[in-house]
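Troubleshooting log. The previous structure file for this entry was overwritten by mistake, so regenerating from the original sequence record. Sequence copied from the archived sheet and checked twice against the printout by T.R.
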Amino acid sequence: MTQVMIEDMERRGLLEVGFTRAPPAGVTEAKPEHDEVVVFRDFFVAGLRYPLDPVVIEIFKLFDVYTHQMTPISFIRLNLYMWLTKTCKMKPSAAGFARLFRCHFQPKTVFVKKGEVTSEAEPQFGVYTFAFHNTVPSPVVAYRNRWGDWTGMWFHHKVPLTEATQSHPLVVKEIGLLREPPPSVEVDEGTEEAKNHVAMLHEVSKVFGTRDIVEEYIACKCFPVREG
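Regenerated output below.
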């Protein structure tokens, strides 16, 4: 990812000017600053926008995951959830999201070259996806499931720090090893909130597919994961 590419994304309205930083040429290891997260270009194609809605941040905290660990499809599903709850006059929440979605691990292999030797390694990024629970209804799928070599297009994005602690829940000091097994969240299915979320999805899935829902919020020129 280069600065020229970032400036093009800024011109197209995908990024705000001055909030991003491309890695230096030839650098392959991300080293975010204290107010930066690592993101990928295709996250913004899939609907990521900053600043994030506080509920989205709470979802990441509940699952104990970070942006650099996710796939682009995760942001399609986050947008779906935020849009559906708000348009159905429900209050979005991390617990409500966890009743409908799980964190799915998509293992992959990368090849690392050191000198003349090439070896296999497990990447520590781009392997988690928010997926619907198998026990809940879901809108008909209508989005890209293959994104090509998207993990090569990464860069740093600034996030607002809390005034008291000068920190942000999604910032990491260094890219650490993934936890095994993948993050899992248990939600009480008997609560009124959980039942209402499943009922909402049941009714929506009868009428709308994923494409219909995505077209709705794009037509409204908004991205539900964004604050405000």
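The mean pLDDT is 89. Archived copy saved in two places this time.
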